[in-house]
């Protein structure tokens, strides 16, 4: 068998052709991989962006909700404070009216003194009254057959009586204390009258 001579140029061309095909294949695969990576990157970026956007929107909404809640709380606090100031003003006016004593003080003192004596478990030994009512209290006690009871004055008292018994019991029927009791007992009613049908 006779060997066919090898053509070097033909071999080179074949090798170059094969190399080009392999190079083109590698480049094509690389381009496809690059395109896939790019698409995956875009999807991941979009996913992260949407996630970030959602978080930022939530932060903004939470902040807006917090600001609104704080504003509502401040408004309620301000309204409540204003209402309290109005009520305090009303009771101050009542206290001022009591201090002006444009009513039958003698009758008031007589009723409160009798009421206080009734509430005590034993005979009174001391009666405290406003500086303006010392002589009136002595006169009333004398009329009640208790002219031996000590009468003391209190410059800070508006009016009424504080009675102390021989056993140490005390009944406070001063105007200030009675007004305080009225306030505590009827505060909700006063609020209802002033702001009927509204939140108090």
Which features would summarize this protein structure in a list?
200 residues; hypothetical protein PF0899 fold; 4-stranded mixed beta sheet; alpha+beta
Rg computed from alpha carbons, rounded to a whole number of angstroms: 49 Å
Specify the overall morphology: rod-shaped
Kindly name the structural category. Answer: alpha+beta
Mean pLDDT: 84
Which second-level CATH architecture of the domain at 101-194 applies? 2-Layer Sandwich
How many helix segments?
Answer: 4
Q: What is the name of the CATH superfamily of the domain at 101-194?
A: ATP synthase, E subunit, C-terminal
What is the share of helical residues? 55-70%
Instruction: Indicate the CATH topology of the domain at 101-194.
Output: hypothetical protein PF0899 fold
What does this structure look like?
- The chain has 200 residues and is α+β, with helices and mostly antiparallel strands.
- The chain has a domain at 101-194: hypothetical protein PF0899 fold.
- Helix content is 69%, strand content 12%.
- It is built from 4 helices and 4 strands.
- The chain has helices at residues 8-100, 105-119, 134-143, 175-194, and strands at residues 124-130, 150-154, 160-165, 170-174.
- A 4-stranded mixed sheet has the order 2-1-3-4.
- Strand 3 (160-165) and strand 4 (170-174) form a beta hairpin.
- Helix 1 crosses helix 4 (175-194).
- The longest helix has 93 residues, at 8-100.
- The radius of gyration is 49 Å and the shape is rod-shaped.
- The protein starts with 7 loop residues before the first helix and ends in a 6-residue tail after the last helix.
- 11% of the residues are buried.
- The mean pLDDT is 84.
């Amino acid at each position: 068998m006779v060997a066919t001579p090898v053509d070097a140029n033909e071999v080179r061309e074949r090798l170059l052709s094969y190399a080009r095909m392999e190079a083109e294949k590698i480049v094509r695969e690389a381009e496809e991989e690059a395109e896939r990576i790019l698409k995956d990157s875009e999807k991941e970026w979009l996913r992260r962006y949407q996630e970030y956007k959602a978080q930022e929107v939530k932060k903004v909404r939470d902040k807006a909700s917090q600001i609104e809640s704080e504003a509502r709380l401040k408004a309620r606090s301000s309204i409540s404070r204003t209402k309290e100031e109005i009520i305090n003003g009303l009771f101050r006016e009542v206290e001022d009216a009591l201090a002006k004593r444009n009513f039958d003080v003698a009758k008031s003192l007589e009723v409160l003194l009798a009421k206080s004596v009734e509430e005590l478990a034993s005979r009174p030994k001391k009666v405290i009254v406003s500086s303006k009512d010392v002589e009136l209290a002595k006169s009333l006690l004398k009329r009640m057959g208790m002219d031996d009871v000590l009468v003391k004055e209190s410059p800070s008292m508006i009016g009424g009586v504080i009675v102390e018994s021989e056993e140490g019991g005390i009944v406070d029927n001063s105007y200030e204390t009675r007004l305080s009791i009225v306030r505590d007992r009827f505060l909700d009613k006063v609020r209802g009258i002033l702001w009927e049908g509204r939140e108090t």
